[in-house]
Amino acid sequence: MQEKPILNVCNVFKHYQQVTAVDNLSFSVKEGEIFALLGPNGAGKSSLVRMLIGFTHPDSGTITVNLDARSYSAIPHHALGYLPEDRGLYSEKTLTQNLMYFARLRGVDKQIAKQRIDFWLNEFELIERQHDPLKSLSKGNQQKVQLISAVLHEPKLVLLDEPFSGLDPINQEKVVTFLAKLKQRGITVILSAHQMAMVEKLADRMLLMNQGQTVLLGSLAEIKQQIGVSAELVLRYETDINLNTLDADSSRLTLLNNNTIRIELSDAKHLNTKLIELTQLGTLQHIESKTMDLHQLYLKAIAQHPTQEQRQHGA
Ligand SMILES: Nc1ncnc2c1ncn2[C@@H]1O[C@H](COP(=O)(O)OP(=O)(O)OP(=O)(O)O)[C@@H](O)[C@H]1O
Fold first, then answer.
1. Would 215 disulfide with which of 100, 138, 208, 282, CB 3.0-4.6 Å?
2. Ligand 1 pocket by C-beta < 6 Å: which residues?
3. Predicted model pTM
4. How many angstroms does the Cα of residue 25 sit away from the middle of ligand 1?
């Protein structure tokens, strides 16, 4: 028998006055996965997150969280580690005071809390600062303390709203390591993020939303298949070229400048034929092969997603 997913979202809608913030969304998250919520500003990620933690409720559809042999209509408080978009710690208090406060609030024994606080402060290289007031830390370091505060009670499910925002690349990498460690401990992580390079490294599966709807859903390999592109070639010619002289289907070709084109390939099967066709355009000077990264896939998928107006007119 297949194990029940830890989270199941089924045909969920959420409206605010005229706006449909979440529009018939369905997906599930398996236990122990790192699952990313992606999408442009206003795509509906925060509206979804608010429903997942029970701050608001779907207008229709269901959210089911399967935990401790029970099911809940939102992630129960005791099992949730939450990093909200608006961070909330006590800036006058020290790191340890802040963290101890949150751990005790979540019912963690004082001794155990101390061990976990020391462990994570060490991991984030903040142990030396443990007795400093939070406000004396840089924004990035405060963010790390906030992340630690979300996991001190060792929750089953961690939900992080934009954990990379405001962090420099070095600290972003530290958050990647932090999340990988949570995964190693069997914790399920759901995060919203705009940093595609981080998501690409981390996420087992992802949901790309736009206008409240699903645009892509699955692992990186699966979404590449969904969008029908796995690689691209960039070809530079000795002289300017004219795409109109090409016999082949040019729908996947883009003229980057007068003598350079990019071609998207859904698989490498027809590479020989394609290359022969492309030599019709002129003498090749340089060929470069690239795999499309998540950032490019994201842009492409959002550009292809029909607007509300197009959907209304059945496009
Ligand atoms: N409380 C609210 N009242 C009215 N409209 C809202 C409310 N919350 C969200 N919306 C609208 O719902 C849509 C989705 O917003 P949401 O904040 O969920 O998007 P998001 O993907 O989290 O965006 P961002 O990446 O900018 O945080 C937007 O059009 C937004 O204006």
1. 208
2. 16, 19, 21, 39, 41-47
3. 0.84
4. 15
